[in-house]
């Protein structure tokens, strides 16, 4: 019975994915036929005082993924954690507060080094070896805070990680690099639904964000990442798509995040 239910679930997932892909492929043509050339758009961006790093022009590969919420998995493995952690759940989010002082050193470099070791310890973090440290995301998360945040993204399939709050671990420290708590979300049973041989480049994605009027004049691009973010949920299965994520800072120092569908360049809300 469970096998039949699983088969029917994945059949519906594939049918819905096919419909989504059809709509997205149709919308590709609207993006590709934009009259502004890449060279002209680069010039416009510069004339508007927008500062960026050198944006990649290559077209990477990606996949459509399905995964299940891993909250029950985390709950079932709480027994492996040391008693020095007080663990609570809020919906999908696990929060672990240390019962004793855990110091990650005296500098950002030492905190990263020791923090990586902490996360890999199965008695401190469940499935910690499935998470990858993201330095740029950590810097972004720590901006404007009195303490420090170490961000680890759950590994997906291939080279790209998840860039979703549904598959992330954050170690929050005070200004002296003492661990205040860590939070964790997890997805399990990751399945490849469809290969995507060609995604839009980082440069094309940022140009699209600019054309959607999401990038203000005189802004600065402070962070960019290609990874998997949630598209929809179907019968408990979350569908993830390749997504370019950008963070830009305006002249007032305020940061905003922009997400662009890496298949067709559409703006994701």
Average of the residue pLDDT scores: 88
Question: How much of the polypeptide forms β-strand, as a percent range?
Answer: 25-35%
- Radius of gyration (CA) equals 20 Å
Beginning-to-end CA distance, first to last residue: 38 Å
Structural class by secondary-structure content: alpha+beta
Number of strands: 12
Low-confidence stretches: 25-33
Tell me the major beta sheet: 6 strands, antiparallel
The rough form would be described as globular
What series of H and E elements makes up the topology? HHEHEEHEHEEEEHEEEE
Percent in helix: 25-40%
**With helices defined by DSSP (H or I, 4 residues minimum), what is the helix count?**
6
Question: Could you characterize the architecture of this molecule?
Answer:
With 269 residues, the protein is α+β, with helices and mostly antiparallel strands. The chain is 29% helix and 33% strand. The chain contains six helices and twelve strands. It has helices at residues 2-32, 38-47, 71-76, 108-120, 135-142, 202-211, and strands at residues 62-69, 85-90, 93-98, 131-133, 148-154, 168-173, 179-184, 187-196, 220-234, 237-249, 255-261, 267-268. The strands form two sheets. Strands 1, 8, 9, 10, 11 and 12 form a six-stranded antiparallel sheet that branches. It has a six-stranded antiparallel sheet with strand order 2-3-7-6-5-4. β9 (220-234) and β10 form a beta hairpin. The radius of gyration is 20 Å and the shape is globular. Residues 25-33 have low confidence and may be disordered.
